[in-house]
Amino acid sequence: MINLEDIEINKFQLNGLLNHHEKQGFKYLLENGVFCATCNDYCKYSVSNYKLYLDRFNDIKVSGNCSLCNGKVEKVMEFGDNESFFRKAVQFRNKMAALVESE
Ligand SMILES: [Zn+2]
Fold it and tell me: Buried b vs exposed e over 53-65: b needs ≥16 C-beta within 10 Å?
């Protein structure tokens, strides 16, 4: 049974989910693609204090603060469209579910 809720993941877990190419994409989006409504611009100084989630579409959601104004920012990175990433994400969810069951 796959539990399709947002689950928080750490950077180590993210690393395991992304291949080399996707890691570069993630880094690029984090540094250039997160929009801050307060600054009305993309976060030029990246995002701080962020948390990572695997959302219910198996996309990566980043939730943190704009490094310039400290406003809340959120960005969904659509990795779930990628078949190999999606497969890894499902395996990851199954592993996490198995860990919870064995507690
Ligand atoms: Zn800002």
Answer: bbbeebbbbbbbb
Local confidence band at 1 (pLDDT 50, 70, 90 cut-offs): very low
Cα of 67 from ligand 1 centre, angstroms: 7
pLDDT (tens digit, 9 = 90+) per residue, 80-101?
Answer: 889 999 999 999 999 998 888 8
Q: Which residues surround ligand 1, an ion (CB under 5 A)?
A: 36, 38-39, 66, 68-69, 71
- This prediction has a pTM of 0.89
Report CA(45)–ligand 1 centroid distance (Å). 9
Domain locations along the chain = 7-98
